[in-house]
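Lecture notes, unit on binding sites. The following record was shown on slide 14. It pairs a sequence with iron/sulfur cluster.
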Amino acid sequence: MNDGQRLLEVNNLRKHFPIQHGLLRREIGRIRAVDDVSFYIGESETLGLVGESGCGKTTTARCILRAVDPTSGEILFRSEDGSTVDVATAPRAQMRSLRHEMQMIFQDPFSSLNPRMTLMDIVGEPLVISGYPRSEREDRVAELLRVVGLRPEFMRRFPHAFSGGQRQRIGIARALALNPRLIVADEPVSALDVSVQAQVLNLMMDLQSELGLTYLFVAHDLSVVKHISDRIAVMYVGKLVEMAPTDALFATPRHPYTAALLSSVPDPDPRTVRERVVLQGEVANPANPPAGCYFNPRCEYATDICRSETPQLREIAPNHFAACHRADELALAGVV
Ligand code: SF4
């Protein structure tokens, strides 16, 4: 992948939610859910976006699909006609025509499917909305079910007849209906059993190589994104704190927060003894973050500069970025 093949480029994205008070709804503060986030995703690449709950990863994903309007920043998407569209400011009518190129897979396969609709209606709904010829809809739904490993004769059944993993396959089939190029997957396997998680991840990887899909894969758990992601971006309180190719991030983390997350990744070899970093204190409040590095109250390496100056994301090694004043000197433990 090179710069010329970027499908999505996010520059200085911010999403702040006002905190209002009183009858006049006076603004008394702001929750900085996403605060100056920049990254790109190459064509057919998977970027894992990881962080604890409330770190802003889902809000980032929702901004990219314009499910919420960003406060500022650019979201440049290279459309299939070769033009670049700024999703952050595109008029609603233009967004409607872009919708088929960008789709979402949701976290909860139990609540994201309408229990009163058959698979034909659920998977076929995007086809109806886009004006797909009626006579060809059933064949297309059958094909989509086959692609995700479900039998086409299931199309008259309702979601309750299926297991969690099968329901997530239905959600994927629906997302694929209009041949999207970018899929934003918001914790797509976290509601599933571990054995089923692997099946769904394998399916997503197979679909990617067959269809050339590009994924933004949101998760709270590094072990989930390890095998599917080419690169991983780690978020903490609305900001990116580290971004690197997956192998480099696991082997040589450059930010203490990433190292702490890695220390809780289960090791498949039970003989391995790893020191677990137990994070002290609570995640910072995005409405009132601490001065300096937002991670400083929980960081065992914090010094004076960490309490006064906010570190910028900078390139520490080729294609390996970290926002830590001490990234060059710390030798943090990774996972091989
Ligand atoms: Fe820790 Fe300082 Fe680095 Fe923040 S900048 S992660 S407080 S060492």
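Take-home: The mean pLDDT is 92.
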